[in-house]
Amino acid sequence: MSVRDNGPGIPEDEIPIVLASFGQGTNAIKSAEQGTGLGLPIAKNLVDLHGGTFTLKSKLRFGTEVIVTFPAERVMSALGPLEAHSPPTQPGQAEPDRPKPSIRRHPVRNAS
User: Which CATH number among 3.30.565.10, 3.30.830.10, 3.40.630.30, 3.90.1720.10 corresponds to the domain 2-78?
Assistant: First the structure.
């Protein structure tokens, strides 16, 4: 999963600071809309608890991207088994009506 913005970005040397609890970069300190400095550390810790990877990339004045990857066994076991969809076995045979799934599932993107 990837989330990207086109905000002010984070200087590379401040990435360890913003990933620490209550840590804020210089842009956040100067901003009128200061946060607590807990959002990124909480998100990273939740990903770590699930055995995933949390990557923060940022370029000053261009924006920030967070890439989260969860192990397949964590994602798939939580979702349960998928129903196999097979095409008709005979030409001209209509496919049976299937209920529409309520959850859209997307393939897991590898961050590497």
Answer: 3.30.565.10
